[in-house]
Amino acid sequence: MKIAVLASGRGSNFESIAKAVKSGKISGEIAVLIVDRKNIGAIERAEKLGVNWIYVDPYGYSSREDYDRKIVSILKHLQVDLVCLAGYMRIVSEVFIESFPNKIMNIHPALLPSFPGLKPHEKAIKYGVKVTGATVHFVDNGIDTGSIIVQAVVPVSPQDTSSSLSQKVLELEHRIYPQAVKWFVDGRIEIKGRSVIVKNANYSTLPIVPALEDF
Ligand code: GAR
C-alpha cells in the first residue's frame, strides 16, 4: 500500500508515520511527502528518513482547484492509496476529495467537533474545557468535519498554556495517527455513513478510543 503525506510545517506527525513504516509496523511505503512551503522541518525530516519529497508552489496556480489538480496528478502517477494530511494548513478542494473518496485522513489537535480550524488549544483554554485531545478523521468538504476514526483524551489543568497543552496532545497524536494508518492499511476500517468502525478493535472505556494496539 502506498501512502502520501502532505505537510506545511514542522513535520513531527509525518515522521511518526514514516518511522512506523520504516520499522515495519505499517506494511506499506511512503511514496512521497508533498509540501506547500519551503524551508520547513518536514523536508529536513524527509531527507533524514530518505523519503522522496516534492514542493508544489501554491503561487504557481490561479485557483485552489488547479493547485489540487496538480497534487492529485502527482499522487495518481505514484499510484497512492492513502493520503495523510499532517499539519497541512490548506483546505483541500472537492477536486481532491472526489479523487480520493474516503482515502484522505487528517489529524486535528482537539476533540472534534469541538474547536475545529485554527488555534484549537487557545480556544480550548479560553473556553475552560477540562479535557481536550486529538482526532484522526477522514476528510470531507467541511473544515475538520469528516468521519472520526480515533480520538485520544488529554486532561486540561489550570496551569496549562496553549504550548503545554499542544505538547501533551502532540505526544498522543504521534501514537494515534500511525495507528489509524495501520488500521487502514490492514483493511480493518469500515465506513457506515458518518460512523467509522475498526474491525475487532477494543471500544472500551479507555481515554483512547478505539484502544491502541501497536503504538
Ligand atoms: C499538529 O498538532 C496537527 O494536529 C496540527 O498541526 C500540528 C502539526 O505538527 N494540525 C492542524 O491544526 C490541522 N488543522 P507537525 O507538523 O509537527 O505534525
TrEMBL record:
The record marks D144 as: Raises pKa of active site His. (6R)-10-formyltetrahydrofolate binds at R64, M89, R90, I91, V92, N106. Its EC number is 2.1.2.2. Pathway: Purine metabolism; IMP biosynthesis via de novo pathway; N(2)-formyl-N(1)-(5-phospho-D-ribosyl)glycinamide from N(1)-(5-phospho-D-ribosyl)glycinamide (10-formyl THF route): step 1/1. GO terms for biological process: 'de novo' IMP biosynthetic process. N(1)-(5-phospho-beta-D-ribosyl)glycinamide binds at G11, S12, N13. It catalyses: N(1)-(5-phospho-beta-D-ribosyl)glycinamide + (6R)-10-formyltetrahydrofolate = N(2)-formyl-N(1)-(5-phospho-beta-D-ribosyl)glycinamide + (6S)-5,6,7,8-tetrahydrofolate + H(+). Residues 1-181 form the Formyl transferase N-terminal domain. InterPro entries: Formyl_transf_N, Formyl_transf_N_sf, GART. Keywords: Purine biosynthesis, Transferase. The active site is at H108 (proton donor). GO terms for molecular function: phosphoribosylglycinamide formyltransferase activity. One of its GO terms (cellular component) is cytoplasm. The keyword Endoplasmic reticulum does not apply. Signal peptide: none annotated. NCBIfam families: PurN. Belongs to the GART family. Catalyzes the transfer of a formyl group from 10-formyltetrahydrofolate to 5-phospho-ribosyl-glycinamide (GAR), producing 5-phospho-ribosyl-N-formylglycinamide (FGAR) and tetrahydrofolate. This is Phosphoribosylglycinamide formyltransferase. The gene is purN.
